[in-house]
Structure prediction request, 283 residues.
Amino acid sequence: MAHAIWSGAINFGLVTIPVKLFTAVKSDELSFNLLHKKDEGRIKYERTCSVDGKPVPWDEIVKGYEYEKGQYVILTDEDFKKVNPEATQSVDILEFVELDKINPMYFDKPYYLEPTKQGRHAYALLREALSTSNRVAIARVVIRTKEYIAAVKPLDDALVLELMHWASEIIEPGSLELPDRDNLPEAEMKMAKMLIDTMSVDEFEPDKFANRYHDEVLAMIEARANGQELPKAKKVAPRAKVVNLMDVLAQSLEESKKRRASSNGRTASQDKPATKRRKKTAA
Prediction:
């Protein structure tokens, strides 16, 4: 059973909803150690001083902010305590806004909110009110001495607390050299939309997408651990250079139609035996 990483309450107006916070995502990233090739010894890192080149113990290390090249302001643990946000153990809702009015770039990391027994009714009320109004709550929350701006969003039967980036953390694309939105050939736009239509699905099904790199690295590790021969490296065919965009769009559209027809054919052939079995059983 998962363990709550934080306990507190959702506060909006005079309503208080006791809740617990649970991690909603996990990383599939593989972790590797650095070893000495000769004897597989683990590599250790020493904290050395850039001035005298000698190792430095932890009790002699302080935190400094470089405000000018080579000039630092030293801050102690007591200094940080003075500016630590008050750990109120609450999700303080400040306002409500329609979800599509928020730039998705602001969303960062989601957590599940679970109500305590006493908060179940108010939790359900807030969840349904948000769902029917297509709004999310914008709130402040302190987790482990750090303050965040966050969104409280309904997701099926749950409320999700999604930590957000501060406005000052978002880099605007103004410095990028981007093409204009005007003067696009109508024929190319029509072909591009047709390609999008043939590749569109009714619902996003994340389960059908596998982390191939993760799975293949694990298979390679297992083979190496069992003394088995490793698979040969795959040869990736070079992509053809784009000569005429219309030709490429037309070719892509044709290939997309073939894939869809092939996929529909497999589905139909898989259904036929089941149909015959049902008729035989009914007879």
In short: The first helix runs from residue 77 to 83. Residues 184-200+244-283 form one domain.
